[in-house]
Amino acid sequence: RAQGRKLPGTGELRSRLIKALPYSLTNAQAHAVEDILRDMASGDRMLRLLQGDVGSGKTVVALLALATAVESGAQGALMVPTEILARQHYESFSAALEDSGLRIAYLSGRLTKKKREAVYAQIAAHEADIVIGTHALLQEGVRFARLGLVVTDEQHRFGIAQRAELERKGAAMPDVLVMTATPIPRTMTLTVYGDLDVSLIQELPPGRQPIRTFVRTPQRRSLIYDFVRKELLKGRQAYVVCPLIEMNEELPLPSAEEVYEELQNGIFQGIPCGLVHGRMKAKEKESVMEAFYENRVKLLVATTVIEVGVNVPNASIMVIENADRFGLAQLHQLRGRIGRGR
Questions:
Q1: Tens digit of each residue's pLDDT (9 = 90 or more) over 196-211
Q2: Could you give the CA distance from residue 74 to residue 295 in angstroms, rounded to a whole number?
Q3: How big, in percent rounded to 5, are the helix, strand and coil portions of the chain?
Q4: From CA 4, how far away is CA 12, in angstroms rounded?
């Protein structure tokens, strides 16, 4: 274990944030926060993995940890795998910390050169307390004045080398918190994350709906989409996930592009549909996702680009075509896009 900084915080901002939450922390969240605060206050460097199911409230735990780092006179960084997720975190953190006087910066590869350099300057001069960003945080121009805590969300999307790269951005080695919603078997935790202490969040916040999962044969396809249509007409939204982007002669599977054409011109005619996949330009992808967030698009046909961190509480149903083409961890992540609201 490397020597770390002591980041005890004063607890004042943390208790203000907890009071302002519209719900109380679950026992599991409170335990995870205790583990993290104990590690941060000790002179040893924290290396901790926070594992909790999709929607179990890991982000709030991360926010409290980052606030503690800032109270201790340090800076915090939160790195997430996608632009969409970074933006969402930036907005929710900004709202939660509005009255705290904390300065939050946002960094992504899509900022103009001028804006990016302005953010670099803020970070280097300690004019930003918490920086939220994508892989853009790893760029050469990023130098922290006093980096105390690094939080990586959806750890499985980043390599160990990338994690280490961000940790080297400050003068002293920062505390590290990595978060994942993918269930990791204990044996793998020991081999891949053997250097990490583990905190588990094993309960969901109140108000989460149980998610029911059904397997259906292709013969039932028209009935399934008929049911989805009824849900949409009730004011809900839905996802349809496909394994491929476009038609492939070697794999006779429905592709996202084909399914989108078929549904838009068939059973969902007259209902606004959107298509999103990894080969689209970032701008196009963003505008479709934005329309889905704002409920202008009712049915979103997608590949696994929506697997991580897309939060649309109004989406109540997901159809996964050829589910056997996805891994269990992927299906678990995808399923977590549903049941995020009341």
A1: 888 989 887 777 777 8
A2: 39
A3: 40, 15, 40
A4: 23
Burial of 307 by CB count in 10 Å (0-12 exposed, 13-18 middle, 19+ buried)? buried
What is the per-residue burial (b if ≥16 Cβ within 10 Å, else e) of 287-305?
ebbeebbeeebbbbbbbbb
How far apart (Å, rounded) are the C-alpha atoms in residues 160 and 165?
9
| Under 8 Å between Cβ of 72 and 43 | no
- The torsion of the CA quartet 106, 112, 113, 119, rounded to 10 degrees, works out to -20
The tens digit of pLDDT for each residue in 306-337 reads: 876 677 889 999 999 999 999 887 888 888 88
**CA-to-CA distance for 286 and 83, rounded, in angstroms?**
8
Alpha-carbon distance 277 to 246, whole Å? 10
Q: Token pair of 66, please?
A: 């980052």
Measured CA to CA, the distance from residue 287 to residue 274 in angstroms comes to: 10
Cβ contacts of 45 within 8 Å, gap of 6 or more: 1, 2, 3, 4, 173, 174, 175, 176
Beta bridge partners of 208: none
